[in-house]
Amino acid sequence: MAGNFASFTEAKSFSTLNDVVATYRDANGYAIPNRFDVIISAPPSRLGGAAMTNPSHNSQRASDLRRISLRCDSLSLPGRNLVSSPDAMPYGPRREVVNSAGYTGSVNMVFNASANLEERVFFEEWQKQTFNEQTWDVSYYNDYIGEIDIYLLDRQDKRRFGIKLHEVYPKDIVATELAQGTNDQIIKTTVAFQYRHWTSLDRNRQPPNLGNETTNAVTRATLGNVPRVISDLG
């Protein structure tokens, strides 16, 4: 019927084309996928077949990690999902209630390879921390897990978004294809990292550090029970 319009609380849209364009002209602008920063932190025990106890070894290893991190050509920013199940209700539509927070569990990173495939060798050595090549015994979990920080940058290289992957290890080193007709291309090394969960690196979004508060409370309680004569010896 002519003149019979729908009725809403606000009849006019709050967003016009000019308003949408203006939102991307301010300091924030667009987020672009080719500006990111990756920091890989491997486990501190053994890499390269020798224990990293010499300070010069630690410095060299940190340099290697940074160089390899800089060669990351592409990656997938991990997502997160909520695991839910139907809440049986006697009447009306059913609700989906959250049971736990779920994570994708792995993230692929592609690295530009150096002439001696330094990146592949590094991650192969990291994988060797998970098992013994002679006995095939597996290592303790905490001996081979590391961390990865991922930052999204703006055009001025300022970090605008960041997450930390916890309990990381290189689960899969993807096979590298070689071909005679690709003499003008760089070899890519793809690594699938397994991780347990991720957290925000934005300090404004981080929850209170309950672990430190608990530790401090236990410490205070323990010190309060120490006899004065023992305290005086310190």
Give a quick precis of the structure.
The chain has helices at residues 17-23, 55-70, 118-127, 210-224, 228-233; strands at residues 36-41, 46-47, 50-51, 72-75, 80-87, 95-103, 106-112, 146-153, 159-173, 188-194, 197-200. With 234 residues, the protein is α+β, with helices and mostly antiparallel strands. The protein is extended and about 80 Å long.
Provide an overview of this structure.
- This protein is an alpha+beta fold and 234 residues long.
- It has a single domain (26-224), classed as Pnp Oxidase, Chain A, CATH 2.30.110.
- It contains 5 helices and 11 strands.
- Strand 2 (46-47) and strand 3 (50-51) form a beta hairpin.
- The N and C termini lie far apart (91 Å).
For the largest beta-sheet, the strand count, sense and barrel status come to:
7 strands, antiparallel
**What's the helical proportion of residues?**
10-25%
CATH architecture: Roll
Q: Total number of β-strand segments?
A: 11
Spell out the helices and strands N to C.
HEEEHEEEEHEEEEHH
Cα radius of gyration in angstroms: 26 Å
Q: What is the overall pLDDT average?
A: 79
In total, the number of domains comes to: 1
CATH class: Mainly Beta
User: Which shape, going by the Cα principal axes?
Assistant: extended
Kindly, what is the distance between the CA atoms of the first and last residues, rounded to a whole number of angstroms?
91 Å
* Unreliable parts: 47-56, 213-234
Would you tell me the structural class of the helices and strands? alpha+beta
CATH topology category name: Pnp Oxidase, Chain A
SS field, number of helical segments? 5
Strand content: 25-35%
